[in-house]
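debug: dumping io for the single-chain case to check the tokenizer round-trip. Nothing else runs in this session.
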Amino acid sequence: MRIAALDDDADLLELVQQVMHGMGHVCHTYLDGASLLKALRRESFDLLILDWHLPDISGPEVIEWVRRNIGDRLPILFVTNRQQEQDIVAGLAVGADDFMGKPVRVGELSARVAALLRRSYAPQPTTTLAFGRYVFHPDTRSVEVDGKFVELKNREYDLALFLFQNIGRLLSRDHLREIVWGQSPEVASRSLDTHLSRLRTKLDLRPANGFVVSAIYGVGYRFEAVDPRLAGQDGAAELAHGDA
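debug: decoded output
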């Protein structure tokens, strides 16, 4: 992975760089916010490690710029002397994904970076995944139903695969939105309902075909496998818009 670290302490940056290199990552270091922002305009990174107090711009301001110009997919770890509860809340609220205090403990830094990268860049399966009459092909991001390919848009595919990989699990609306759109606050609540409705139609998700999407009031949705032989008794399995 390619990582950027921003801090006005050169010695700390050297330590962070050594730890990242030891984990097998490439780490570029920056002593001020302007240098990092300039790099971000022309380069890409898989993770940002930021201090709060900088000589020219604050860490939260850097994060606001990143979220506004790059988006929510890029994981960000705050490493700072500010460790009060209100600081942690403020850092996470502005868009940081994780927060750790100084002095830096090498083991903790390694663990937090590994967890962020694992969460943000989960390895995609390379073999076909079969769920009854539904077959997913991750290499081509396509889906077959009864041997016939069904055209899905990128976000529809991501949502469908996630649902099939989490059969029976109650998933909150925010969880599902983050899987497909990241943590973007601009995504309207109805966007999730619309995508689920399209999936239900395109993949013909109904009891007779063995799978249903159910809205759980006040929480989110549950994708379930059902016995097709009981389809006539499962009138409650229809997707309810706006109930969750």
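debug: round-trip ok. The first strand starts at residue 2 and ends at 6.
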